[in-house]
Design brief:
oxidoreductase activity; 4-stranded mixed sheet; 213 residues; two-stranded antiparallel ribbon; alpha+beta; DSBA-like_thioredoxin_dom
Length: 213
């Protein structure tokens, strides 16, 4: 039997936004690829912020209304397409509830990383499940804190209460990791192998192989 010392390290830097459905689809497929190759690699996954709409209101706006304004007559077709894509990863896509500014969710994701990469990864999952399938609002502190509690993050309430906590760090990450990209999800594997979009698991598996040889 091979010991863990023989496993190769795969570091994945992911740029994503918490209101980007393709980012969640990509995460589900990435998780599948990780589960299928855990015997070969040790994984280090780090989530970085991206804001699709940095000027979105903090108080939130009805999702359907927002998409109708943004995409016009395309919005219904897009909703049907996302429902189909989500079904393929075993989820039910919902456009109920509000959308809006994602900065507080990114501050919380940054905070989670200080308590461990696994907690950060688990928090991203909780936020996505709530926002995309349960009609939760990504800017609602109650929802953010419930998600943090579920994955065992300590001190989240105190941290979120101060709007400046983690703000500088998130803004710096936005510059460093998102400054040169135009869309998300965006993955950098072992610092040099780059992928974008909600790729299927087999694309990730190939990328792990290429990045470690």
């Amino acid at each position: 039997m091979s010991g863990t010392s023989e496993k190769k390290l795969v570091r994945i830097d992911v740029s994503s936004d918490t209101v980007c459905p393709w980012c969640f689809v990509g995460k589900k497929n990435l998780d599948k690829a990780i589960a299928a190759s855990n015997d070969k690699y040790n994984f280090e996954i780090i989530w970085h912020p991206f804001q699709l709409n940095p000027d979105a209101p903090k108080e939130g706006i009805d999702k359907r209304e927002f998409y109708r304004r943004k995409f016009g007559s395309q919005s219904e077709r897009m909703e049907a397409r996302m429902s189909e894509v989500f079904k393929n990863v075993g989820l039910e896509y919902s456009l109920s509830g509000l959308t809006g500014n994602t900065m507080d969710s990114h501050r919380l994701i940054y905070f989670a990383r200080q308590q461990g990469l696994e907690k950060q990864h688990d928090l991203v999952e909780e936020l996505n499940i709530g926002y995309f399938t349960q009609g939760k609002y990504i800017g609602d502190h109650k929802f953010l804190l419930e998600s943090a509690a579920k994955v065992g993050i300590e001190g989240a309430e105190e941290f979120l209460k101060d709007p400046n906590s983690g703000l500088k760090e998130v803004q710096e990450e936005l510059k460093t990791y998102s400054g040169n990209i135009t869309g998300v999800p965006y993955y950098v594997i072992n610092g040099n192998h780059k992928l974008s979009g909600g790729q299927p698991p087999e694309v990730f598996l190939r990328a792990f192989q290429v990045a470690t040889t």
